[in-house]
Amino acid sequence: MRFTGQRTESGELRDGFLTSFVNVSCVQPIDGIDEYGAILDGWLSILSQLGFHARHISIYGRVMVWQRRQVQGITLRFRHLDLTLGDIVLLWNADNPQRMAVDLGTSLERLAWARTLQSWNELIFGPLAGAAPPSALDALRTATLLIGNGITPAARGAGGITHRVLATLTPESTRLGVSAAVRSSHNYWTTIAALAVPWPAIAATIEHEITRR
């Protein structure tokens, strides 16, 4: 989950961004800069196997060192044609630069978007894309993941995140109900990992939270 996705001036998430997504990443320590290049080369081979020809892949960014507390790093991004897929970060300890690591990441959804060139909303929400505002569908998708893993709405702790997500939903934004969106989201998430809570119970929890306000 991530609440830092880019948004339009009206507050809607821009195409390519979601509050919840399947993270595809490689995070590992390295002993030298050569390993950084080898990991990037291996990633290009994986992208090629997925149908992204290397001649259409470009790496871009500025080789400017940033620092967050005791960690320094350089971030480069990779894209297919004009669509950014993710980034590859070289990290090291500011006090001991020999302690390095690589953090390469993208999302399964963004890879599918680049692979299929579908409309973003239709790719993510399927036939429900026009049934409710994208922000509402995104919130239902995220709430399904949270509640499906037993993280029910609460004032504090992890449940506070679920409460924050559900607080964006209104009866107007879900006037057609939540069951269809929850069931669709539940089907998606369970292709990645089984959810502990069945979709009807998740839908009931969400409906209760919306109507009790």
Compose a concise summary of this entry.
The chain has 213 residues and is α+β, with helices and mostly antiparallel strands.
Explain what this protein looks like in three dimensions:
This protein is of the alpha+beta class. The chain has 2 domains: 94 residues, no CATH class; 92 residues, no CATH class. Helix content is 38%, strand content 21%. Strands 1, 2, 3, 4, 5 and 6 form a 6-stranded antiparallel β-sheet that branches. The longest helix is centred in the N-terminal third of the chain and has 17 residues.
Work out the strand percent: 15-25%
Taken together, the total number of domains comes to: 2
**Could you give a short account of the major beta sheet?**
6 strands, antiparallel
The percentage helix is 25-40%
Query: What is the radius of gyration?
Result: 20 Å
